[in-house]
TrEMBL record:
InterPro entries: NTF2-like_dom_sf, SnoaL-like. Residues 7-124 form the SnoaL-like domain. This is Nuclear transport factor 2 family protein. CDD domains: NTF2_like. It comes from the Bacteria.
Amino acid sequence: MSKASHQQALYELICRYAQAVDQRDWAVLSRLFTPEATLKGPGFSFDGVSAIVEGMNGLGHYSKTQHHIHNHLAEVDGLQASAETYCVANHIYETEGIERKLDWGIRYRDRFACMDGIWHFTYRELLLDWSQDLPLRGAPHETR
């Protein structure tokens, strides 16, 4: 497999992660990590696939999420790799009868291992660069 092929496979792995999280497909998510992998971010750290899946279930309090993958640079060294990937994650939820959208500007710092020709996350760290929380739709205007 060429370096470009490995880099493409890593990008596809990151996209599969975003899709699995947004679709709440925990079976797919669990297959993307090595058994001893770690997923950490602001205020959380999950060690092992079961803890990762259980922890990601916390997204259930959002009615929808969308993770938009942007800049992605990967370095491949044999059967190991690392990458930094930018993402904007949208989280839709309701509070006090108002639908809101929480946006996160994320940088993922990842490490990977290739096992039997398939890349898996061994370590994923979510760095939160910025966030904003706004009503999803404008507030109704009062009429006088």
